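Predict the 3D structure for this chain.
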Amino acid sequence: MPVELGSVVIAVAGVAGTLGGALLSQRGLERAKRREIELVRGIEEVRESASLRRSCYTELNSAARQFTTALNRYLHVLRERGADDTESAALEEAKNAHRDRYSEAQMIAPDEVLRQVSLVNRALTAVYGQVKRLERGDPGPGETMEAAGRAQHEIWALIRSMRAAMRHDLGV
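Done. Predicted structure below.
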């Protein structure tokens, strides 16, 4: 009887080992598959984030340039003859487009980029305010057409710095 019991124990241990090994192999494969899926998701999220930032940055850069150009045109029109509704509407449209892109960037851009974006936004809104006060004939201290023109021209350097920060963030 002791020999038979030993054989049974060995047989049970062999079967348990075979089944346990299969179970452990299956669990290992499941874990590896889960890690692979998580890795692929992570890569996709990084790509989507970069694509979203690239789109946002492109539109914001374009809107900032258009707003700056619209301010320049508006200043020229004010100097030459005074602005009418058409020029005023074009300036407002450029300002609103920039505001919308800036709002989007506030939700997407990392802090390093947002610092540069904010500098451009503040400069644009400051010049816009100056231009509107000049148009109304109620300029603040030191606000002249020439000062507004210089301030508008200085925005281009801020836009270049903003663009550089954006490109750095995108790895360009």
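The chain has four helices and no strands.
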